[in-house]
Amino acid sequence: MQNIKNQVRGSGMDSRSNPANVSDGLQNSSGHIGANTRYRLTKLGEQMARLPIDPKIARILLAAKKHDCMAEILVIASALSIQDPRERPLEARDAAAKAHERFTDKQSDFLAYLNIWDSFQRERDKGLSNKQLVQWCRQYFLSHLRMREWRELHHQLAQTAIEMGLTTKEAAFRQPPSQEQLRPSESQGDQDLAAKLKQKQLDKKQHRAQIRAAKEAGYEQIHRALLTGLIANVGMKSPDGNDYTGARGSRFHLFPASALFKAKPKWVMAAELVETTRLYARDVAVIQPEWIEQEAPHLVRYHYFEPHWEQKRGEVVASERVTLYGLTVLPRRPVSYGKVAPEEAREIFIRGALVAQESNLQTAFFVHNKKLIKEITELEHKSRKQDVLVDDEALFAFYNERLPELVWKDAKGGVWGSEEGGQNQSDKTADQNGSDNKTNQHAAKGKGRLKPLPLADIRTFEAWLKTAERDNPRLLFLSRDDLMQHAAAHITEEQFPKFWQTADGKFKLSYRFEPHHPLDGVTMTVPLTVLNRLHAPSLEWLVPGMLREKIQLLIKALPKQIRRICVPVPDFITKFLESNPDRQAAIIPQLAHFIAKSAGDMRILEQIDQDAWAAQELPEHCYLNLRIIDDGGQELAGGRKLHELQQQLGQAAAVTFRDNTQEFERDNVTTWDIGTLPESIKFARGKQQLTGYLGLQKEKDGRIALRLFDTSDAAEQAHRQGVIELMKLQLKEQVKDLNKGIQGFTQAAMLLKHINADTLRDDLTQAVCDRAFIGEDELPRNEKAFKEQIKRARSRLPAVKEALSRYLQETAAAYAELNGKLGKHPLTHLLRQRLQTLLAPGFASHTPWTQWPRLPIYLKAMTLRLEKYSGNPARDAAREADIQELEQMWQEKTDGLVKQGQPVPDDLAAFKWMIEELRVSLFAQELKTPYPVSVKRLLKVWDGMSK
Asked: 390 Cβ partners below 8 Å, 6+ apart?
């Protein structure tokens, strides 16, 4: 320390220098002073000691050489070394502030000194006398004596800088920048007034941009140099106030006279911190926090947090925070963690890139290991137990044992797992060249060139692997023994097949063990084209490996007294499966029958409520998950309820099924010239082998076309209507006569006035044609059968026409009688709704022929119900509630089929008429029914249909 003081005294420092300044300078320049306890000056410190100013200012001058702004810094440094030349007398404070505005810079108080200097220099350059200069200084509230002192100190510093070789004489003295005037554009002479005004505005904008660009370039150079000496006076604005947080936890405010007082920028640097009523920063400027680290790297501290593997960058990354004396300069930025903590980064690399497989490695070992782990993981998904694959710690131990702690890079770019490995390679190279002596010399040189690298990124790992696999190509290859905790012999392809086999081909199955996940269990990927062809009961049986658990859960849901029959449950399940149950039928009815059979008492079947049993919710994985895709493999929908998927996409599936099947179809068929129609036809759709069903169909425009359908039911229903329409073309005279109306039509149309007469006539014609042309006959599928059907139709037509005429008149008469008695009866609204359903427009063609004689009976039953109602309204309401429940079940099922574009099965259509017979039985029993009906009987029929 004494040596430093002696050198400072011998440097020509003036009275402003003192031991406190030296101590302060040591503190600021600590990074440039030797680390030993004797505090020997560095070369930079020796240069600072030669400058007769505050060490902070001296450091700034030395930085000015680096940033090529010596002329500006000499002016500012000399200004900071004297008393402020600006005067602010109390009696004229406002006038002084206004006068000083011409020197103000919005970003920096330091540049205000340059502006004062330049303005004063311009006045001197005008050749003003000393008296005139004094007068100018008074005008702008500047002290002429301080200005002269400033210039003298500036001259002294400039001479010292020149002598030290920091600058040249030409570059040391600042010349005021020329104030370029705005030059008009050369092309203005040929423009009109509006164009000239617009061009003038553009010129002004460009001129301002040029000035701003030049100023910003100089701004950064000047303030970076200033920052080197004023590094302890930086501050960041507090987010919740107007004060600033500075170094070592200090808090300060901007001085009110500063040009930045109102702006309150985020980061500032101050020439000094002065404490009066509070701590104020004087002479401040806006800075960028990045400059702090760049100009004072020896003073900042680095803190690392959140180290992690980043797949995109292919390396272990951590967040870095940069601080200066406890002040956060950069809160967070990503950096490579391998150079910071090689051991920890290596572990993170192994766990992230290799164990978790979160990398884009294409090496042979990685592809092999990834495939092997996937296969064993699939075994766990199938068995629904995580006891096959070893845990991550075992995988980590495998890689940790084989990967080196550090790798070494030689001069040729080779990367080795040890220093000796790189050395040995150098020995081999030298040995190939010749003598042993040269080998030893080469090895000695090679050892000095080896560079240690952390194993924490993909590039280094691949380079090491390239050399490591020369000796052991399968160094990092995992085996099944390394990965499996036990053999998992029970997980076979027979128990857990890869595909679901149907008549339409095989569909891929995938397994997942992740409870509560949408894909938990087994998922079948199904093309949209075959969605309507899936059979819900067959899907209940899942795959053999998962079926036993499902049956066990079903048995567990039974009442205790029935569950006892199944003990021991595993043996009972084995016997049930060995009895070869029908895999195309539902599980519950067959399981219930087997339970009763095993107990030797079939009456137990009546004790099992199969509806309640089926309603019991099992875990999601006990139901097959369906994933519906289009031809491009894109998922359209998914779920475990087939009927909902068919409602949602059934119509689209039928349309998609017909795509690219023009070879089988034909438009505008007018005669049977289509040959023989097979019951089904097989064709290829991409890689899928499909089965289609041909049939005639009446199009929306009335024409007849040959179409391909995805289900036999849809084909049969369409073919019936298509054949009828084609027969109409062959029996034009008979159809023409039929369209004139049947006997008694006019009177019936007057009674059924809620239906348009033309609509009723067309509807009756269609009903007659359906019965006379087809009836109960088998649909023709070749020309011979079609011609024979036409002959039968001609002979049947008169009888059908006469019978329908009689049924229509009886129905119309019964309707008129009922309609006349409705009035204001309590049942009026309900029965009018029933009439709208029973005799709605189109009822003639929708009513089966066997039900026509019953239509008048249904209407008479309504009339009798009106007469009996007053005797017991409560009983009437209770019976109606039972019927409504049945009707709602039927309606929901029918709507679902229609929505998915599927035909209504005959048994479901017949159920509607059973409900009508039930109304007769409950409300007009004296009219009698053709077969026994009751609520209990109909529920039993419904259960049979559902199964």
From this structure: 482, 483, 484, 485
* CB contact at 8 A, 173 and 70: no
Which residue shows structure tokens 């008549």?
Answer: 503
Half-sphere exposure of 392 (CA within 13 A, CB side): 10
CA 860 to chain centre: 63
CB 834 within 8 A of CB 862: yes
- The residues facing 451 across adjacent strands are 409
Chain center to CA of 686: 31
Asked if residues 106 and 259 have their Cβ atoms less than 8 Å apart, the reply is yes
Q: What is the mean pLDDT of residues 2-27?
A: 40
Q: Shortest CA distance to 298 belongs to which of 28, 25, 21?
A: 28
Check residue 190 and give its pLDDT: 55
What pLDDT score does 487 carry?
Answer: 62
Residue 602: exposure state from Cβ atoms within 10 A (0-12, 13-18, ≥19): exposed
Q: What's residue 345's pLDDT? A: 95
Instruction: Count Cβ neighbours within 10 Å for each residue of 487-522 and write b for 16 or more, e otherwise.
Output: ebeebeeeebeeebebebbebebebbbeeeeebbbb
| Rg over CA atoms, the chain | 49
- Cα dist from 209 to 201, 204, 205, 547, 716, whole Å: 12, 9, 6, 78, 82
Q: What is the pLDDT of residue 594?
A: 92
Does pLDDT of 734 surpass 80? yes
* Orientation of helix 906-923 relative to helix 935-946, angle to 10°: 170
pLDDT digits (tens, 9 = 90+) for 431-461: 444 434 433 343 334 444 677 889 999 999 9
- Considering Cα of 25, then 29, then 35, then 41, what sign does the dihedral take? negative
Q: What residue has token string 């009106």?
A: 866
Task: Show the DSSP H helices in 230-278 as ranges.
Answer: none
**Dihedral of the CA atoms 804, 807, 809, 811 (nearest 10)?**
-130
What pairs with residue 285 in β-bridges?
108, 269
Amino acid 299: pLDDT: 92
Strands (E), 414-462: 415-416, 451-454
List CB contacts of 373: < 8 A, sequence separation 6 or more: 357, 389, 478, 483
- From 636, 637, 702, select the one nearest 669 (Cα to Cα): 702
Q: What is the dihedral of CA 782, 786, 788, 791, to 10 degrees?
A: -170
Single-letter amino acid code for the residue at 878: A
Contact between residue 33 and residue 42 where contact means Cβ atoms under 8 Å apart:
yes
pTM of the predicted protein model = 0.58
d(CA 758, CA 754): 12
Amino acid at residue number 932 = P
Q: Which residues contact 371 (CB under 8 A, 6 or more apart)?
A: none
Tokens 């005279």 label which residue? 733
What does the alpha-carbon distance between residue 917 and residue 857 come to, in Å, rounded to a whole number? 9
| pLDDT tens per residue across span 746-769 | 888 888 888 888 888 888 888 888
pLDDT classification of 666: cutoffs 50, 70, 90: confident
Contact between residue 467 and residue 414 where contact means Cβ atoms under 8 Å apart: yes
Asked if the model's pLDDT at residue 60 lies above 70, the reply is yes
More confident position, 204 or 161: 161
Asked if the model's pLDDT at residue 17 lies above 60, the reply is no
Determine the 3-state secondary structure of 244 from DSSP. Answer: strand
**pLDDT, tens only, 701-720:** 888 988 888 888 888 888 98
Count of beta carbons in the 10 Å neighbourhood of residue 704: 23
**Cβ contact 908:890 at 8 Å:** yes
What are residue 453's DSSP bridge partners? 407
d(Cα 519, Cα 512) in Å, to the nearest integer? 7
Omega of the bond leading into 930 within 30 degrees of 0 (cis): no
Q: How many CA atoms are closer than 13 Å to the CA of 403, on its beta-carbon side?
A: 31
**C-alpha dihedral (24, 64, 218, 269), degrees to nearest 10:** -10
| CA–CA dist 650, 902 (Å, integer) | 7
